[in-house]
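Researcher: I'm comparing several assemblies side by side, and this is the next one on my list. It has 829 residues spread over two chains. Same procedure as the others: predict the full complex and return the structure.
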Amino acid sequence: MRQLCKGNVAVIQGAVLAGCRAYYGYPITPASEIAEAAAFYLPQVGGVFLQAESEVAAINMVYGAAAAGQRVMTASSGPGISLMQEGLSYLAGAELPCVVVDVVRGGPGLGNIAPEQSDYFALVKGGGHGNYRNLVLAPASVQEMADLTMLAFELADRYRNPAVVLTDGFIGQMMEPLELHARITSPPEKPWAVRGTAATRKNLITSIHLEPDALEAHVRKLEAKYREAQEREPRHELYLAEDAEVLLVGYGIVSRVLRSAAEQAREQGLRVGLFRPITLWPFPVQALREAARDVRAVLVVEMSTGQMVEDVRLALREQAPVHFYSRVGGNVPLAEEVSARIFEWVETAVR
Amino acid sequence: MAEYEVVHSKSPVFYPIYERKADLKHQTHYCPGCGHGVVHKLIAETIADLDLQDRTIFVSPVGCSVFAYYYFDVGNVQAAHGRASAVATALKRACPESIVIAYQGDGDLAAIGTAEIVHAANRGENITVFFINNAIYGMTGGQMAPTTLVGQTTTTTPWGRRPVNEGYPLRVCELLATLEAPVYIERVALSDNKNIMRARRAIRKAIELQRDGAGFSLVEILSPCPTIWKMTPTEARDWVAENMIRNFPLGVFRDRRLAMPGNGGPPQRSVAEVLGLTSPSLGTEAPAAATPTDTREWKMKIAGFGGQGVLLLGQILAEMGMREGKEVSWLPSYGPEMRSGSAHCHVCLSSQRIGSPLIEHPNVLVAMNEISLRKFAPSVTPGGLILYNRRTVPADLGVSNVRLLPIPAAELADQLGAAKVGNIVMLGALLELTGALSFATAEAVLQATVKNPDLLALDLRALQAGRDWARQLPREVR
């Protein structure tokens, strides 16, 4: 059944289906509806919802619940995510699965509450201390807010690592039809968890490895895990890309704008396609290289001053010229704006 | 020859061999005379006595006791600095049958983790906290703790703690005893055998209370740190007795059972039920699906003051579109803009997957006030439609190539008895003038969403009023 649903609420509906039974969080615009939905749904299905005293406390509660083997999540926006970074590092270091949703708003500092994509570095490149990665998924619709939250729980458990749903104020606040598939999953067995039982008594959750050799071995183990994720987990979507002369690259809300921009450009006779990374980490490097094989130029559009574009350039190296266009501060690039930019570049290139 | 036999034994709650250092398999890493060893022993003996070894989860902090898990043969979780009581909160809630012990030092609990301990105590989490207060940062080499005594020299108070610069020692038990929820708070000291026996009783009581589901308990243990204090173990013990106890009086600060109200919580339901996966779809009963040939794309912007039902009108349109099998999106303005009085939303209705939900050039603008009309009218696409919530339009509004129709929605709503249904009047006019969606769907959506029968009747009259007003407009302006 299709229901009209807000992106932030869809996150929790997906989480409940995925077997998430614990939410610890702190309110912040534009992510608060996630906490509100968790407060409504989870206690009805035997789960825990607790509004913590801070994001610092919240992420450490997530650590505790994950240590006990629960499927657990939290959500926040920029400033709160900054406060959670230490905790994310501990979770990754202790190999604890959890899901963190960032409904990105404008920064830095208090910035504003309008949508931005400026937390890419903070979550895709790390943010906390030490050698770790977050698995990062970028939904572009309300449906994907639910679907990718469910996938995030799966990936978090598969790799015993935090998984992040990186979205923005628009996708969080907008309403679209949501269809939930009655595929209620239960979390996998977690024999490593600490549950206060005879079977789990010998278990230890920690991130400390004082001897250099021991820490190196641990970090190499994490590294191997991340390499496996890089091989298995990249996901992307293509639109009108097969015959494209110009390839647009964008994620989340921007990819929606780029869809419209590609259509508009085609109406004006230029073959434009779209590459949308669904996983931001691991970044779909191979797929992007293939999609960009025959294009004349690549245009990356972000609501940041240039964060993902670095990964695009790393992936493509000298394969195609990479241009960049951005809006920030809560301004969303318009399709007209983007297609005008494409034609400008094409004319310049012809001349 | 001695008349007694010395038996070296230790609690079965300790591991037989300590794996931390290969050459020191029977020694802890704690210094001679350190209080941690004594407290560990008292805790281990209590866990053994109460037969709680399998059920216990020990949360170790950052500080000298970070390696407590090398000694305690129980479930172990190591926490970030200061967060043991937050971690313990979630462990206990995940595993209500477990016995969760948070073990924290003075820097951990009373400096960086102040918020976490206050709030765990205030929530009455059914956990036990052992708070080791030795008035110094031991592991990092002797910096000031929040509990460092006035005048006490540390590496970061080289001239002694001066209240004018560092404030006074923090008294955690006294602080937490101001809260409603904690059931047991006591301060004890490892200053002599008598006080150690008192500490033993306090530790036992705190764990028993958790076992019995009583609620939050905390035992503060004044504890010697001979190495950092640069004293012999005996001197350090005496320093606890002579200096620490004077600043941190021993005693029971809270000992009561508390019935916390509001245990109920909501009734338990299945996931399918909660998410509405089993209930018959409201959508399937929706009448009059749009004709498949209707491929018009509607990009509607609805704007006005907060309180005019602008966002709701958009949601109704999106819901109707979805029921008629269209792709739909609804995007609001949100946040302070909403609170400062003006609001707008974007609604896309399409037969195709919707690209950008953000509408720069609407083909329908509903302007519920003049500010919105002036702001957004110039962006309407040629041939588009503007519905304005007045009898007349401002003469100086320079827009061309659009149909600009005054619909006195608020006035008509007022005549019906409630200005708040002005948005529904506008809906009636919009449906009549565009044919974008059917009236039957509008009625179905209102019937499904408006629970109050009086309000529903009013809404249906408003819908009709808007429709009637639009119908009587001269054909040439329609």
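Model: For your comparison table: Chain A has a mean pLDDT of 96.
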